[in-house]
Specification:
Layout (H helix, E strand, L loop, with lengths): L4 E5 L4 H12 L3 E6 L9 E4 L5 H14 L5 E4 L14 H29 L2 E6 L3 H4 L5 H21 L4 E8 L5 H4 L3 H9 L9 H11 L11 E4 L8
Parallel strand pairs: 1-2, 1-4, 2-3, 4-5, 5-6, 6-7
């Protein structure tokens, strides 16, 4: 069997980098995309801004020319611009939805051309527990992550007959640079709200992504898979 080619957007740090390592360990040839910063050592990389159709097209052109069409697509790139609804302006809302939801659409639409030719593939969106539960101060982020579920399930119906699956992984609170900056009381309160009593590691999310990308998950599509320590209780 040939080595599968995987693309991980926003793969140069945090959850995306952990996913890239897990897929590489599983035997995939991993290409990561990044918008800013430096690409990590040990991976092929392309610059891509998911908020720009032109940037997405150019990145895919480079990938296809050098390595072929990716058959594992992990849409991980995303941003937050938190704020209470009465203080959130339209730009804050639209910017987050454009990056997290429309950005995932841009990548998936462009990737689908190659997947349909291959007649196989995995589309994996990195969602969030707040996509189902909601979160005060995150109307924009929650809406964008909720939208990924409808997108994945529509793609599952459109592309399933070609052997292409589409699923959403929904992390809860994760040990990242952002959560590391929280004060100790806030971290304790958050951990206390999780049935397992702790934050998730990026590697725990990455392991689930690697499974969904594997042949063992060939009959799973249209699913919302929580990796949240029980916080969402399956919602």
């Amino acid at each position: 069997m040939t080595q599968p080619l995987a693309l991980v957007t926003g793969g140069n740090r945090g959850i995306g980098l952990a996913i890239a390592h897990a897929l590489k360990k599983q035997g995939a040839h991993v290409v990561i995309s990044y918008r800013s910063g430096e690409p990590p050592a040990g991976f092929d990389a392309v610059a891509m801004d998911v908020t720009s159709t032109e940037s997405v097209d150019e990145a895919f052109r480079k990938i296809e020319e050098q390595w072929g069409a990716p058959e594992i697509i992990v849409c991980n790139a995303g941003i937050t611009k938190d704020g209470l609804v009465l203080r959130m302006n339209e730009d804050d809302f639209e910017t987050v939805v454009n990056a997290n939801l429309t950005g995932a659409f841009r990548v998936t639409q462009r990737a689908s051309k190659g997947l349909l030719k291959l007649k196989r593939g995995r589309i994996i969106f990195i969602g969030s527990v707040v996509g189902a539960l909601g979160s005060a101060g995150q109307v924009n982020y929650s809406a964008s992550k909720s939208g990924l579920v409808g997108m994945a399930r529509s793609l599952a119906r459109e592309l399933g007959s070609r052997g292409i699956t589409a699923n959403v992984i929904a992390p809860g609170f994760v040990e990242t640079d952002m959560t590391a900056s929280l004060d100790e009381k806030r971290r304790t309160d958050i951990a206390g709200s999780v049935p397992l009593g702790r934050f998730c590691s990026p590697e725990e999310i990455a392991d689930v992504v690697a499974f969904i990308a594997s042949p063992g998950a060939s009959y799973i599509t249209g699913a919302l898979i929580p990796v949240d320590g029980g916080l969402g209780m399956g919602h």
